[in-house]
Amino acid sequence: MDLQKLLRAGICVASVSLSISACTPNATETTTTTNASKAEVTVEQAVWEKLTADGDAAKAKGDLKKAEECYQAAVEEAKKLGETDPTFGKTTANLADFYYAQGDGAQADKLYKQSLAVREKALGLEHADLVQSIVGLARVASAEKNYAEAVAHYERAIDILNKNKLPVSDDVQKEYAKAKENASTSKGSKKEEVGGKEDAATGKGDTTGKDAASGKEAVSGKEAESKKDSASGKEAESKKDSASGKEAESKKDSASGKEAESKKDAASDKK
After folding, report:
1. Quick one: how far is CA 233 from the chain centroid?
2. pLDDT at 89 over 50
């Protein structure tokens, strides 16, 4: 009985072992696949790094056409690692840096935003690698005189660096201070412009308007005075003419009377 129980137990154990073996992948095959994937990623990473280095070297020599080609090729190579991979985000930001340096703000802004979206998804919202993309957006905003937007980007970048206990470069600090100053000045100018429009509309606080009104009143007064003088002159002239007419009429009547009297006297003498 004891022997039979042992045999049965051995058969069961063997069966379980066979079942587990059938369901478990070959360890050697799994290791080979993993190593192949790692090797492929390593090659792609090496190609990306080489293209980026070549782009940097070409830019330093002033060969901007070759530098652009290398950076663009690096972006395409990084895509093979996945468009959500941090490497793709970094490569895109490098290309954005290149376009910004050449004065192409529109293209740079587009790539910085794409880079930031990739990095936020892959690394989170407070990773230090985000700073490159955020500062890039701040610089583009400042160049386009969107100072309030630039200040917001600089403050976020500085906050991330502080949280990661990393130093803020002198350049970023100076750019941030300049953006704040410009933002403040810009707000003041807009406020004055709005105030000026309101004053013009209401007539309040507009000394020029008052002066113009005073001038208008002065002109109107002079015009009224001139009209009054003109009327007085005409009236005087009319009176003068009337007096002259009466005098002439009187003289005429007197002459006629004297002539009639003379003729009457002459007729009497003849008789």
Report:
1. 67
2. yes
Q: What is the mean pLDDT of residues 37-42?
A: 55
Confidence of residue 169 (pLDDT cuts 50, 70, 90): very high
**pTM reported for the whole predicted model:** 0.58
Place 192 in a pLDDT band, splitting at 50, 70 and 90. Answer: low
Q: Residue 71 is encoded by which pair of tokens? A: 């950076």
Secondary structure string (H, E, C) spanning 238-257: HHHHHHHHHHHHHHHHHHHH
How many other β-carbons are positioned within 10 Å of the β-carbon of residue 58?
18
- Residue pair 79/64 in contact (Cβ under 8 Å)? The answer is no
3-state secondary structure 52-119: HHHHHHHHHHCCHHHHHHHHHHHHHHHHCCCCCCHHHHHHHHHHHHHHHHCCCHHHHHHHHHHHHHHH
Q: Across the chain, what does the average pLDDT equal?
A: 73
Structure letter (DSSP) for residue 145: T
Single out the residue of 66, 41, 70, 77 nearest to residue 53, CA to CA.
70
Instruction: Kindly state the tokens that stand for 83.
Output: 């468009």
Q: Any idea which residue has 């610089």 for tokens?
A: 139
Assess contact for 157 and 172: CB atoms under 8 A: yes
Separation CA 271–CA 269 (nearest Å): 5
Measured CA to CA, the distance from residue 25 to residue 94 in angstroms comes to 42
The Cα 63–Cα 270 span in angstroms is 139
> Two tokens at 193?
């412009």
Calculated CA dihedral for residues 213, 217, 218, 219, nearest 10 degrees:
100
50 vs 74: CA distance, rounded Å: 8
Give the pLDDT confidence of 130-168 residue by residue, as tens digits.
Answer: 999 999 999 999 999 999 999 999 999 999 999 999 999
